[in-house]
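Before going further, learn to read the protein records used in this course. The integers have meaning only within a learned vocabulary of local backbone shapes. The record below shows the convention in full.
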Amino acid sequence: MRIIVAGGDGFCGWPTALYLSKQGHDVSIIDNLVRRDIDDELHSNSVTPIASLEERVEKWKELTGKEIRTYIGDLNHYDFLTQVFKQERPEAFVHFAEQRSAPYSMIDRAHAVYTQSNNVLGNLNVLYAIKELAPDCHLIKLGTMGEYGQPNIDIEEGYIEIEHKGRKDTLPYPKQPGSFYHLTKVHDTHNIMFACKIWGIRATDLNQGIVYGLNTDETRMDPVLTNRLDYDGVFGTALNRFLIQAAIGHDITVYGSGSQTRAFLNIKDTVRCIEIAANNPAEQGEFRVFNQFTESFSVKELAEMTKKVAEQKGLTATISNIENPRVEKEDHYYNAVNTKLIDLGLEPHLLTDEVLDEILTDALQYKERIIQDNVIPKVKWK
């Protein structure tokens, strides 16, 4: 089918575009390349050197004969977006094109405003483009498990049955987001649900866990196709950051007690989940929610797993607990449901020593690119 991958130059979007192209779909990418600009803003970088988007798609065509068209522009520019829709006539729109860092959204007022306007208004433009130009297009939207927060009950997939004063109803699961970034995902969810109800749009909201890993089979085909690997205190997720800290001999810094528990999945499962959603589209007017993760771990468990693998490679790894820069529960109940994607055929890649070793090996290969001052948090919620 004809699929647009918005944010197709990013950590999740790039391997997804390649994977879908390899499966035979007609793929195009929309990206404003702002993530590369943010590296300059933060004086940071990807551990792995990444080629330009133009070089990437040219190499992909050279290796596979498959073309991925690219459109450089912003979803907040509606005239641009409508021109892409008219040219591509998408049957599915995969939406990764949002500012994805909680710490970035908490730097200051300007970064909070940017995150909210970029994410919420860009998504609203996508909804209108589908309504006006491609009403049968299936929106596959990346949400986050962070929308749910840390409730003291099981986390269901999008909806929960409530009994109140003798009456029952099935309602959207209550949201308790933990940053201005996570709030944008909640706003997106409400806007998409509303658009499905009033316009008959079909949409799948993928509440994704924290993604770890680096490469997929496709990005391993050539160094030009390599995916980015973030490690700084703003964009580096806990596990990737721990592995990079181990690579340079820095303490593995656990926020607070480390008892915070989150949902995780391998980047290889991210691309497969998108394919599953695309091949099994929502019905017209249906807003469905899949919890997109495979395992849950505490931060402390991730640190201990990293330490073990690092020491197996002869590295010295020390775990240290530092003040938590976030405002969050550290000791809490966490049990989330994730059956829908499994029922549709997802076969998870689990977090093993071999997976950790592979990421650590890549980090050691590009060790000289790591900026040591960036591996500790500098953004505080308060």
Summary: The two ends are 46 Å apart (CA to CA). Residues 109-133 form the longest helix (25 residues).
